[in-house]
Structures are given as C-alpha cells and as structure tokens.
Amino acid sequence: MTILVTGAAGFIGFHLSKSLLKKNIQVIGIDNLNSYYDVNLKKKRLQQLKKNKNFFFHKIDIQEKKLLNYFKKKKIDCVINLAAQAGVRHSLKDPYTYINSNILGHLNMLEFVKKKKIKKLIYASSSSVYGGNKKLPFSVEDRVDQPVSLYAASKKSCELISECYSKLFGFQCIGLRFFTVYGPWGRPDMATFIFTKNIINKKKIKVFNFGKMKRDFTYIDDIIQGIEGAITCSKKAHTIYNLGNNNSENLMDFIKTIEENLGLKAKKDLLPLQPGDVPETFANIKTSKRDLNFSPKTKISVGIPKFIQWFKEFYNLE
Question: Domain extents for the chain?
C-alpha cells in the first residue's frame, strides 16, 4: 500500500508517517517547509522519517497545480491531506495565506485525487468549525455556520468542497475535526509548547479569558489511531468525524499539570478572551468510536510528562 501524506514535516504528519512506516506502508511525504514556525524542527522530523527506506520526500507546495506531474506513474492508494496554514490567531493577521493554503491547496488535492482516480481522500478539519456553538459536547450533527475566525471558515469551506467532489466524482472523502492536539514534536505555536518553554525560561505565560477556558486536549498517539481508523473505514459517502479526547479540561488544571511536572511555578498574565477564540471545546466522539474504532486513552496526567520529557531532550535541558 502507498499513501501520500501532505504536511509530512508537520506535527501530525510526522507522527502519522512514522506510524504508517512501522506497518510497512510506503509513504510519499510532501511539505513546503514554510517558515510559520521553526523550520529546523520540521527538518529534524524529516531526518527521523528518512531513516526508513519506504519514505520518499518531495519539497512541494500543495498549491502547485502541476502536482500531478510529479506522481504521474506512481500508484497511490490513499491521500491524507494534513498540509494547511494553522493557527486561529494568526488568521487575523495574514488572511490571504489561509485562503491560498487551506482552500486553494485543498481544492488542488481534490483535483489530484480526481485525476489520478484515487479511491480515498482523508483530510484535516478542525474543532474550530464549531465556532460560537453553545451546545456541548460538539457533535458532527451540529450546524457549523457561525465561525469566529477565518481559520475556522477556511476549514468549513474545505468540508463543503469535499462534499461536492465526493458526490460528483464518486471517491470517498473523510474529514477529521481535530481537537487541540499535543504531544512530543508538537508545534511551537501551541499552548503546551509555549507554556513549557516560558515556565522553564521564567517568562510570563498569557492566560486568556482570565483562565476561564476549557479545552478537549487530545494526545498525538490517540489522534494517529483515529486517522488510521479512517484509512480502513469503508463508509462510501463523504463523512466527517470528531477526533477529541471526549473530556474537556480546565485550562488552569492543564497549566498546573505542566507546573507539577516541571517542578516550577508559572508567572501568569491573565488577559481577556482573544478575538477568534472560544471559551470551551468538547468532542462528541460517538460516530468516531463506531466507524473508526477510535478510543482515546491518554489523560493529560500521562501526555504532559511525555511532552516535557521530549522537550527537555530535544533542547538539551536535562
């Protein structure tokens, strides 16, 4: 089996590629290695993957319309599109990047799947699409037409376009709404990374909504298990699933767990809710359990120490 993974040098793409390679699946990884965050971290992830002879990397941007030319003669069984411009707050500063990467880039991957006659496309959506929804936990059956950030709107657009392509051209599409993913090799713009780094460096951490925030923090290994469930899922129509921990944690408890594992106290800068942010996320994973055999097991009391151990090793802080 050969799987094309876009965003292979990214946090989730790296872990997914690593897991697939362990199962003797051939992985074609593509990534544009942009500078949204530390390119060195992306290159270090790739170094790990390139140790496996079944990993083939191409530095390509998914916005390239000539994408098909690179893989004309290559048989691909499934495409997993994880490449995207991430970050809710950054979408307020740089809207064009989100439209180009998340919408035009995703459209390009749909065209690629159509022209190559590939039977399955799995793609990353986000819990952000639930926007201002008040009903908890968030269910895939809820209406999601009240985005509070351009990032959320771009991800919802991808879901709509995928629905259209799946119906028109008859290939299987699965959209996965990820809920606050964290773990080793994580993104430097995410809370776990920022909090850990700042606490170690005795700098203040920004705590929004004065700490009255709740997040469905989901450990990376659980997310990978969900994606791999989507690879074997036989549902034919375009289907969307939540991949979350099914457990909404208080932000202050999350910070406390980091403090306890570092043996350090955080200096907190309590601030109002940021534009584009929501006070709480919480995933209903009923259909994900049923169709993807998804069963998240990792509590923050287990996941955070694993992240901190990696962080200290990676930055030689032991």
Answer: 2-182+218-244+278-297
Phi, psi of 272 (to 5 degrees): -70, 170
Residue 193's nearest CA partner among 217, 214, 213, 209 is 217
Rounded to whole angstroms, the Cα distance separating 150 from 138 reads: 19
Contact present, 280 and 136 (Cβ < 8 Å): yes
**Could you list the active site residues?**
151
**For residue 137, cis peptide bond before it (omega within 30 degrees of 0):** yes
- Nearest 5°: the CA angle 147, 148, 151 is 75
Q: Write the CB contacts of 2 (distance below 8 Å, at least 6 apart in sequence).
A: 25, 26, 27, 28, 74, 75, 76, 77
DSSP H helical segments within 99-189, as ranges?
Answer: 105-116, 150-169
Name the nearest CA neighbour of 126 among 79, 180, 163, 182: 180
Residue 176, helix vs strand vs coil: strand
* C-alpha–C-alpha distance, residues 220 and 201, integer Å: 25
pTM here is 0.96
Q: How far apart are CA 301 and CA 6, in angstroms?
A: 31
Give CA–CA dist 266/140, Å, rounded: 36
> For the chain, how big is the Rg over CA atoms in Å?
19
CA distance 30 to 70: 11
* DSSP three-state, residue 315: coil
Is 57 strand, coil or helix? Answer: strand
* 3-class DSSP assignment, residue 209: helix
Average pLDDT for runs of 10 along the chain of length 318: 97 98 98 94 98 97 88 93 85 86 95 95 96 91 91 95 96 97 96 97 96 96 98 91 95 97 96 89 96 96 98 92
CATH 3.40.50.720 fits 2-182+218-244+278-297, yes or no: yes
